[in-house]
Write a structure and sequence with these properties.
The protein folds into 2 domains: 3-92, Ribosomal Protein L25, Chain P, CATH 2.40.240; 99-184, RNA Polymerase Alpha Subunit, Chain A, domain 2 (Beta Complex). The protein is elongated and about 65 Å long. It has helices at residues 16-24, 49-52, 112-115, 180-190, and strands spanning 3-10, 27-33, 39-44, 59-64, 67-78, 85-92, 99-108, 119-122, 126-131, 140-143, 152-154, 164-165, 172-177. It starts with a strand and ends with a helix. The strands form 3 sheets. It has a 6-stranded mixed beta barrel. It has a 4-stranded mixed β-sheet with strand order 10-7-9-12, with no helix packed on it. A 3-stranded antiparallel β-sheet has the order 8-13-11, with no helix packed on it. It contains 4 helices and 13 strands.
């Protein structure tokens, strides 16, 4: 799993008045959970660009007042009108405790069903998994080289070593649907 580095500073005061003052200065109030006690800090808003505005999932190397923490982004709150980041929650991670996280699904290959005129539909963009941080991959790659018309690849068909997939096993991740053109082309052949 790839890592993004963020540098933060401890928040001198807590409360909505001080949080709003930080936001007005272009800073995002943040909290780090999981180290036994909560660590309240802030990070400059532009620093989140590499972490938030991407389809990828990253580990975060937090440096707060010179102390380093390994974490994942747990939750973010955005302003309802201008989409500015209002608050971020981080979860501290270790190599001995499993975590639950979502990772992106990527599709590779060339489907015979698509070449025959079918439409490839990716129903699930991200899968929820549980495992040790050292075993979590950057993404789940699905090869569709064997996927024909009317076929699908379900969550139960995915395998990630040393990681448990938490999504419903019967959900289709990728499928090839017949289009009207394919159905019309097959109708005269049946007569």
């Amino acid at each position: 799993m790839k890592t993004v580095a963020l540098t933060g500073e401890l928040r001198p005061n807590l409360g909505s008045k001080y949080s709003n003052a930080l936001r007005n200065e272009g800073k995002v109030p943040c909290v780090l959970y999981g180290e036994g006690n909560l660590i309240h800090f802030f990070v400059y808003s532009p620093d989140f660009k590499a972490l938030v505005y991407t389809p990828n999932t990253y580990k975060v190397q937090l440096t707060i007042e010179g102390k380093k923490y390994m974490a994942i982004l747990q939750e973010m709150q955005f302003h309802p009108v201008n989409e500015a980041i209002m608050h971020a929650d981080f979860l501290s991670v270790t190599d001995i405790k499993p975590i639950t996280i979502t990772i992106p699904v990527t599709v590779s290959g060339n489907s015979p069903g698509v070449r025959a005129g079918g439409k490839l539909i990716q129903k699930i963009q991200r899968v929820k998994i549980k495992g040790l941080i050292s075993h979590i991959p950057d993404n789940v790659d699905i090869n569709i080289d064997q996927l024909d018309l009317g076929q699908s690849i379900k969550v139960k068909d995915l395998t990630i070593p040393n990681v448990e997939i938490l999504d419903n096993k019967d959900n289709a991740v990728v499928s090839v649907k017949m289009t009207r053109n394919v159905v019309k082309a097959e109708e005269p052949a049946k007569k």
